[in-house]
TrEMBL record:
<dbReference type="InterPro" id="IPR036388">
    <property type="entry name" value="WH-like_DNA-bd_sf"/>
</dbReference>
<dbReference type="GO" id="GO:0006260">
    <property type="term" value="P:DNA replication"/>
</dbReference>
<dbReference type="Pfam" id="PF04492">
    <property type="entry name" value="Phage_rep_O"/>
</dbReference>
<feature type="compositionally biased region" description="Basic and acidic residues">
    <location>
        <begin position="103"/>
        <end position="117"/>
    </location>
</feature>
<dbReference type="InterPro" id="IPR006497">
    <property type="entry name" value="Phage_lambda_VrpO_N"/>
</dbReference>
<feature type="domain" description="Bacteriophage lambda Replication protein O N-terminal">
    <location>
        <begin position="6"/>
        <end position="102"/>
    </location>
</feature>
<protein>
    <submittedName>
        <fullName>Replication protein</fullName>
    </submittedName>
</protein>
<feature type="region of interest" description="Disordered">
    <location>
        <begin position="103"/>
        <end position="127"/>
    </location>
</feature>
<dbReference type="InterPro" id="IPR036390">
    <property type="entry name" value="WH_DNA-bd_sf"/>
</dbReference>
Length: 257
C-alpha cells in the first residue's frame, strides 16, 4: 500500500497559483507538463531547470511528439518560460507565476484516438537511387532540357524538376510502354535538337505522352531522301509515235511533262 508522507519531500505551490492554474483551460498533456516542471523546479527549491523533451515525455508517460507540441503551446501562452538552451542542449524552463501574463485563449485539442478504417494504406512512391538506370535517364534528359530552357530564357520552368518523378516516367516508358532504353535516348537526343519540339517537350511526362509521335517523326526525318528520277528519253519517243499514230500534229507534241 502506498503511504506518501510530507516528511519525505513535498513541492510547495502557493494557493493563489493553484486557483489560477485551475482556470487556465489547459488540456491533459499541458497540465501534466506544468506539474512535471513544478516537481523538477520547486520540488528541488529551484526556480528553473534544464529539461529535455525526452525526459518530460518519460516522467509524464507520454510521447515525445505530444510533449514537444504541447510544451511549445505552453511557452507561446507564456505559462512556461524558456530562458535559454542549457549545457546539455535542452531548454532551461521555468514556471511563470505571474498569471496575469498568461494567454487565456483556449488550449489546443489533443488528438483523439486513432480510428481504424478499411482503407488500404497509400503505396509509397518508389525511391530511385542515383545509380538506378531510370534515375540516370532522368538526370540525362534533365541536363538536355535545362540547356534548351536556358537558351530560350525559361530555365525557371525546369529548375525545380522532381527527378524522382522523372525517373518514374522513364520506368513506365520502358516497363509499361515497351520502349527500349536505346530508343528512349535516341528520341531524347533528337527532340532536344529539333527546332520546334525542343521548347515544347520540357518534362519527362510530356516526353512519354508524345513519345510515339516523336519517334515516328524522328524516323521519317532520318530516312534518306529519294533521288529525283530523270525522264527516260525512250519513253518520250514511244509517246511521240503514239501521238502521231493518233493523227496529231508532231509539232504540238510536248517533250516535257
Amino acid at each position: 500500500m502506498a503511504n506518501p508522507q510530507r516528511e519525505n519531500g513535498y513541492t510547495g505551490i502557493a494557493n493563489e497559483i493553484l486557483d489560477e492554474i485551475m482556470k487556465a483551460n489547459l488540456n491533459g498533456t499541458q497540465f501534466r507538463l506544468v506539474i512535471a516542471i513544478w516537481r523538477n523546479t520547486y520540488g528541488y527549491q529551484r526556480k528553473h531547470r534544464e529539461l529535455s523533451v525526452t525526459y518530460l515525455a518519460e516522467v509524464i508517460n507520454s510521447s515525445r511528439s505530444a510533449v514537444d507540441r504541447e510544451l511549445k503551446v505552453l511557452i507561446a501562452r507564456n505559462v512556461i518560460n524558456s530562458i535559454e538552451i542549457g549545457q546539455k542542449g535542452a531548454r532551461v524552463l521555468t514556471f511563470n507565476k505571474n498569471y496575469k501574463e498568461w494567454d487565456k485563449k483556449e488550449s489546443s485539442k489533443e488528438p483523439g484516438p486513432e480510428i481504424k478504417t478499411n482503407k488500404k494504406p497509400k503505396q509509397k512512391k518508389t525511391k530511385y537511387t542515383e545509380d538506378n538506370t531510370y534515375y540516370k535517364m532522368a538526370v540525362y534528359f534533365h541536363t538536355l532540357i535545362t540547356a534548351v530552357a536556358k537558351e530560350a530564357g525559361v530555365e525557371h520552368l525546369v529548375k525545380k524538376a522532381n527527378l524522382q518523378n522523372y525517373a518514374d516516367e522513364f520506368r513506365k516508358l520502358v516497363e509499361l510502354d515497351g520502349v527500349t532504353k536505346k530508343q528512349a535516348k535516341e528520341v531524347m537526343d533528337w527532340v532536344t535538337q529539333h527546332s520546334f519540339w525542343k521548347t515544347n517537350i520540357l518534362s519527362a511526362k510530356k516526353l512519354r505522352d508524345k513519345f510515339m509521335d516523336l519517334a515516328i517523326r524522328m524516323n521519317e526525318e532520318k530516312k534518306p531522301s529519294q533521288p529525283k528520277q530523270h525522264p527516260d528519253h525512250r519513253d518520250m519517243e514511244i509517246a511521240l509515235q503514239q501521238w502521231i499514230a493518233e493523227g496529231k500534229d508532231p509539232d504540238e507534241f510536248k517533250w516535257t511533262n
